[in-house]
User: What shape does this take?
Amino acid sequence: MRKFRFRLQKVLEHRERLEEEAKTAFLNARAQRLDAERMLEALAGVRAEALARPLAGLEDRLALERFLEALADRERQQRIVVRTLEDEEESLRQAWIEARRDAEALRKLREAARAEWQAEADRREQAALDEWAVLRRAS
Assistant: This one.
């Protein structure tokens, strides 16, 4: 009996490779977003530390004011980065879902083809057994 061979195996392998690449891209985008969010949290921590320090005079207060303004600018920029990374992550997640769906469709086709092949193999085996039984009784 010949071995099962899926006609679209190369296409399936290609789609599975695309699925894996899409998954990797999504996970990398998620890691970048999480890093950017950690940076935003670190900036908030720096702000809290700066506000907790005691101030000696007017110059210290003015320096703190300038520092807090610069920090606020960095936080705004970092929020923009985080939003951009969130959008990129979402688009990559959608691409991964689509690639997974495409690969899954071919996997289902392969399983259906395997079931059909197995049923045909079972029919052939049964026919051979029936023929053998008839020939054996005839002799």
